[in-house]
Amino acid sequence: MLIQNKYIFLVFGVFLTLSVFSQTKKQLKDQKSSIEKEISYTTNLLNKTRANKNESLNYLRVLDKQISNKESLLKNLNIEISLLSKQIRKTERSIIETRQLILNEKQELILLKREYAKMIFTCFKEKGHRNDLIFIVSAKDFNQAYKRLVYLKQYASFRKNQIDKIIESQKNLAIKEDALIKNNNQLVLESASKRNLIVAKKQELNSINETKKEKQELVNGLNKSEKLFKIQLKHKQKRANDLNEEIRKIIADEIRKAREEAEKKNKGFALTPEAIALSSEFNNNKGKLPWPLEKGVIIQGYGKQKHAVLAGIETFNNGIDIVTDENMNIRAVFEGTVSRIFFIKGEGKAILLNHGKYFSVYSGLKEVSVKVGDKVLAKEILGVVFTQEKEEKTELHFEIWKGYDKQDPSKWLFKAY
Asked: 82, 170, 270, 328: least surrounded by Cβ within 10 Å?
């Protein structure tokens, strides 16, 4: 019984471990699939601009993103190999313990069969000199006859119990041997998976080293154009400042309008109840907002950014930059009102949507599908992304503001972190 309980506990432990492992494995698989899709997408983008890569800072930024994705994939593979190694060790321990339990079960079965054989031999030996009926009726009195009858019944019951124990032990032995076969098969599969992952890891390492080598060669070539990049950086910073000032003016105007509207209604709110409700809904969707593009990869995040070529130069990004395909549709991340459509020299058109206390900004459109005052829904098309022909750069600059405070858009968009 103790052996059986131990086996049940062992099987339960193995199944529990497998359940947790498969959950983790699924998460890793989903993560891996997502990273591989980004690598594939950035590879396509790089192939489109490869001809002019020596003149393109954008190519370098996409290359950086690809290196980052490949390194993430490598970490994913390392975790997967580590988890699989642990699982293999657990399966090996399970096999050893199951074999020991089978050995114990076989020994117990041998003992049961020996005991039963002895009992049968003794029974037949005694039966040769005794008839059960005569044994009962030859009793001196009724009490002795009854005891003899009870004895014979108990003896028969004991024999039946012995047979049942042997049958049960044989069944348990078959279950354990079946579990052993399954564990051995599982070990073979896990070992093969581990070998495949190790091969994939080596290939990924080679791929990362090749991409890093390409990046270094490109940086070395671009360093010769330092003067040009400084001029470009100056222009870019000016465009960013112009966009920032324009957004602040629009937001100030929107806040003023909201206050005036509230005062007219004598409600005493800084915003109308409808705007407050919209703000609350927007806030509740943090981390769940749809992307402003159906396809794209974030190549520059929010906050301080090191220049890809110029050493020691840092810029501050008020939003995120998403690289995408030409003529990709830009869409609203949440329902709101088109507050303003304006133009930034060198960056195309920009749209600012009002979501109550929150504002979303889409900069880098060549075509606009909406007009000021339009009410839009989440995922509604706002226009088409702008492509800078010289750098072959198709990129959307996206920002989120809460009043006058800039937000990190990657924390608001679904799985953009």
From this structure: 82
Reported for 342-348, long-range contacts at CB under 8 A and 24+ positions apart, including other chains, are 342/246, 342/250, 344/239, 344/242, 344/243, 344/246, 345/239, 345/242, 346/235, 346/239, 346/388, 347/239, 347/243, 347/386, 347/397, 348/386
Residues 28 and 172 in one domain: yes
Asked if 242 and 206 sit in the same domain, the reply is: no
Residue 275, domain extent = 236-411
Q: What confidence score (pLDDT) does residue 224 get?
A: 64
DSSP classification of residue 289: B
Q: What tokens appear for 157 in the block? A: 């019951």
DSSP code string of 17-44 = HHHHHHHHHHHHHHHHHHHHHHHHHHHH
Do 42 and 12 reside in the same domain of the chain?
A: yes
pLDDT in tens, 316-338: 888 999 999 999 999 999 999 99
Dihedral Cα 246, 250, 251, 255, nearest 10 deg: 150
Q: Which of 87-101, 204-218, 372-386 has the highest average model confidence (pLDDT)?
A: 372-386
Report yes or no: 101 and 7 within 8 Å, Cβ to Cβ: yes
The answer to whether 331 touches 293, Cβ cutoff 8 Å, is: yes
212 in a structural domain: yes
Instruction: Choose the final residue of a domain: 194, 223, 252.
Output: 223
The answer on 241 and 219 residing in a single domain is no
Helix 2-49 × helix 142-222 angle, to 10°: 20
Which domain-ending residue is among 170, 200, 223?
Answer: 223
Q: Give pLDDT, residue 2.
A: 43
Structure tokens given for 23 = 């959950």
Put simply, whether the predicted model's pTM sits higher than 0.85 gets the answer: no
What are the backbone angles phi and psi of residue 356, rounded to the nearest 5°? 85, -115
Task: Supply 170's token pair.
Answer: 């044989």
Residue 243 sits at the vertex; the CA angle it makes with 384 and 344, to the nearest 5 degrees, is 50
Does residue 229 belong to any structural domain of this protein?
A: no
Element (H, E) at 397: strand 393-402
Same structural domain for residues 213 and 245?
Answer: no
Is 231 a member of any domain? no
Q: Where are the beta strands (DSSP E) in 126-275?
A: none
How far, in whole angstroms, is CA 210 from its chain's centroid? 27
Query: Are the beta carbons of 360 and 373 closer than 8 angstroms?
Result: no
pLDDT, tens digit (0-9, with 9 covering 90-100), for 169-205? 777 777 777 777 787 777 778 888 888 888 888 888 8
